[in-house]
Write a structure and sequence with these properties.
- It contains 12 helices and 9 strands.
- With about 270 residues, it is an alpha/beta fold.
- It has 2 domains: about 140 residues, Udp-n-acetylmuramoylalanyl-d-glutamate--2,6- Diaminopimelate Ligase, Chain: A, domain 1 (3-Layer(aba) Sandwich); about 120 residues, Udp-n-acetylmuramoylalanyl-d-glutamate--2,6- Diaminopimelate Ligase, Chain: A, domain 1 (3-Layer(aba) Sandwich).
- Strands 1-4-3-2-9 form a 5-stranded mixed β-sheet, with helices on both faces. Strands 5-8-7-6 form a 4-stranded mixed β-sheet, sandwiched between helices.
- β6, α10 and β7 form a beta-alpha-beta unit.
- The mean pLDDT is about 95.
- Bound molecules: fe (ii) ion (2 copies).
- One fe (ii) ion binds next to α12.
């Protein structure tokens, strides 16, 4: 039996986080949890499903409702860009429009819908986003870098895809990683997996990576209008791989589910798991 805060702690421990990031929260506390529904997106429908199935709690990946500190998690793009050689000022500039856009979007959202349903049902409810995305980022980064170094100096974008495809989540997914800019036969160059920062960095973050020598960038998802902006401005030879949203989320979620099961929690997989 676990409490909601113990469930959260298991996730934090997997990545060595000391604090709960702003896009994750124990929304409705509870303890004595033996069986929990786990979904990538959990709304009132999934909460009712959990109740209908006689479960003790619901765990979500995506933040829903709006969590107060979501915009701060976007700053992790800055650290990732700086680590890849983008000057800090330029990295901050690239993240600014993203933070502004998402602050407005969440400002407009109905933050009470899901959490009020959980409260009314008396159902403990937790959402864990960034710790699991950070775990997934590390796993994807390792898989990709191993494939690229095994290919040696002739490493191509296709080897980046091969690296992703070594992970069972991508093998099992109905989606396949897409090369949306460049070509699988292009030299891979320096490869970065940009993930675990709230959401993808849209065009400004991608272009900042390319300006500073990244040959292949991996996003997990990207909207088409942003891709068009990237195509219009990216330097010759730049490559962008879109790995696949749910498959990539599962790369971080599955080890967490395993860790919960090892602690005796029964997980009922729903909504994308
Ligand atoms: Fe995610
Ligand atoms: Fe996601």
């Amino acid at each position: 039996m676990l409490s909601t805060s113990e469930i959260m702690q298991v996730a934090l421990d997997l990545v060595g986080f000391r604090e709960i990031p702003g896009d994750s929260a124990v929304q409705v506390e509870g303890d004595g949890i033996r069986r929990a529904l786990f979904g990538i997106d959990v709304g009132p429908a999934e909460l009712l499903l959990a109740r209908e199935l006689g479960l003790d709690a619901a765990i979500a990946h995506h933040p829903n409702p709006f969590v107060q500190g979501y915009a701060d998690v976007l700053d992790r793009h800055i650290d990732q860009m700086v680590a890849a050689g983008v000057p800090r000022g330029e990295a901050e500039e690239a993240v600014r429009p993203l933070k502004e856009a998402l602050t407005l979007r969440y400002h407009a959202g109905n933050y009470g819908q899901t959490v009020s349903a959980a409260r009314l049902l008396g159902l403990p409810y937790v959402n864990i986003h960034n710790p699991l995305d950070e775990l997934g980022r590390r796993i994807m980064e390792r898989a990709v870098q191993e494939a690229v170094s095994a290919a040696g100096p002739g490493a191509m974008v296709g080897h980046v895809i091969e690296g992703l495809m070594t992970l069972p989540e991508f093998q099992a997914a109905p989606t396949r990683p897409l090369v949306v800019l460049g070509d699988p036969g292009n030299p891979a160059g320096r490869v970065v997996v940009a993930h675990g920062a709230g959401t993808n960095g849209r065009a400004p973050v991608a272009l900042a990576y390319f300006r500073h020598g990244v040959g292949t960038l991996v996003y997990i998802h990207l909207d088409y209008p942003e891709l068009l902006k990237i195509r219009a401005e990216a330097p010759e030879g730049a490559n962008l791989v879109v790995a696949g949203h749910i498959a990539a989320d599962l790369v971080g979620i599955n080890p967490f589910v395993q860790a919960l099961e090892e602690r005796g929690l029964e997980i009922v997989r729903a909504s994308g798991l």
